Amino acid sequence: MVLKLFLSVLTDPSTRHPLGLHTIQSPAPRDITLLRARLALGYIPMSWRHIRVVFIPKLGKPLCQAKSLRPISLMSFILKTLEKLLDRHIKDGVLVKRPLHQNQFAYRAGMPTKTSLFHIVQRLEMSLKNKEIALGAFLDNEGAFDNTSFSAIITAARERELVETCCRWVRSMLESRLVHNSIMGSSLTAKVVGGCLQGGVLSPL
Q: Could you tell me which residues are beta bridge partners of residue 181?
């Protein structure tokens, strides 16, 4: 029964929830084969492509402006499982050989934004102590999630020597998305032409 449930979720996850999967000790070989096939072929099942988007207000922002709302993507949890496996592969393999810049903060273990602020404050204090003038330049990349092109994402992945099979799957996952939103009685479905998912496992990386 448990195996049947897992297989049904693999083929049509949009109509089921992961509540019953906590009883599965380990996936059967057939389950693993299905997941491997989707990755190897760069194929995203139709039911995985449909993503519901909900808007969360940003703190301190006026609700009369569209950019004051953060769109969060709610997608298939099996799709997010594949994302998580690929995320582990990238962090434990690709980024070990080709690491990110040492001053890249956030979205990295042990490198929170608080550490970045600490380094800035430390330099300012040192300048004050030595009676120097401190000059700072701050750049805000507005809409980083929304405006990143698919080509830029895949190019960056290839530059880090991510295998082509994984690059193809990521591109397919990005380009095949259909987002749905319902608000105040109106519904809209659209195909995404750029950006990455806020709420996706791989998006921050």
A: 188
Q: State the Cα–Cα distance between residues 164 and 125, nearest whole angstrom.
A: 47
Per the CB < 8 A criterion, the answer to whether 150 and 194 are in contact is yes
Structure tokens at 29: 């070989």
Compute CA 165 distance to the chain's CA centroid, rounded to the nearest angstrom.
18
Pairing assessment for the beta strands 178-183 and 69-74 based on DSSP bridges: unpaired
Contact criterion met (CB below 8 Å) for 198 and 145: yes
pLDDT digits (tens, 9 = 90+) for 156-196: 889 888 899 999 999 998 888 888 888 777 888 888 888 78
Contact 180, 187 (CB under 8 A): yes
From residue 37, alpha-carbon distances to 15, 41, 145 in Å are 22, 6, 29
Alpha-carbon distance 33 to 200, whole Å?
23
Identify the three-state secondary structure at position 12. Answer: coil
Higher local confidence (pLDDT), 88 or 27: 88
- Give residue 121's Cα distance to chain centre: 30
Q: How far apart are CA 75 and CA 66, in angstroms?
A: 22
What pLDDT, in 10s, does the model give residues 70-84? 888 888 888 888 888
User: How far is Cα 67 from Cα 64, in angstroms, rounded to an integer?
Assistant: 9
